Amino acid sequence: MSINRDKFGAMLFLCLALIYGYYVGDIPLLFGDEDAPFNARTLPNAIAWVMGVVSFAQLVLPANREAGSLLAAFRGMKWKPVIMLAALMIFYGLTIRYLGFLISTTIFLMGGFAVLGERRIKVLIGAAVPVVFVFWFLLSQLMGIYLAPGDIFEMLG
C-alpha cells in the first residue's frame, strides 16, 4: 500500500479517534448517570467510534489515485489558506474572552470567508452577521446558555 494524502489523512484521523475515544472515559458523570442509557459520554463515544470506523475504512480500502510517495501526495496542495484559517482559529480562541461572542465570531467568520475567496464586503457582512446573531439567539435565549459579553464591554460600562 502506498501512502497518498487520503491514506495519510485517514491515519491521522484514526489516531485522533483512538486518542479521543481513550479520553472520553475521563468525562465526569453526574451521580446516578453511570447506568443511564444517555449520559455525558454517549455522544463523544459515538463520535469516536464513527470517526474510527470511517477512517479505518478509508485506510484499508483502495484509493482512486495512488500517489506513490508521501511527498508526491502533498505536492500541489494550497497551504496558505490552511495556515491562514488555523491562524484565524487561534485568533478566535484568544479574543473571544475579551471581545465577546458576537464580535469575535463575526470577525472569525468574515475572515474565514475572505480566506476562502469572498471579497465583497456586503456579502461578508451579510453572511456572517445573521449567522452569528441566529447562533447567539439559539444559545442564549432558547437554550439558556450564558455567553459573556466580553471584557471590553465590562471595561466600558
From TrEMBL:
Q: Which organism is it from?
A: Thalassospira lucentensis
Task: Give a yes or no for keyword Cytoplasm in this entry.
Answer: no
- Keyword annotations from UniProtKB, A to Z: Membrane, Transmembrane, Transmembrane helix
Q: Which residues cross the membrane?
A: 12-31, 43-61, 98-116, 123-148
**Name of protein:** Tricarboxylic transport TctB
Q: Where is the DUF1468 domain?
A: 10-147
InterPro entries, from UniProt? Answer: DUF1468
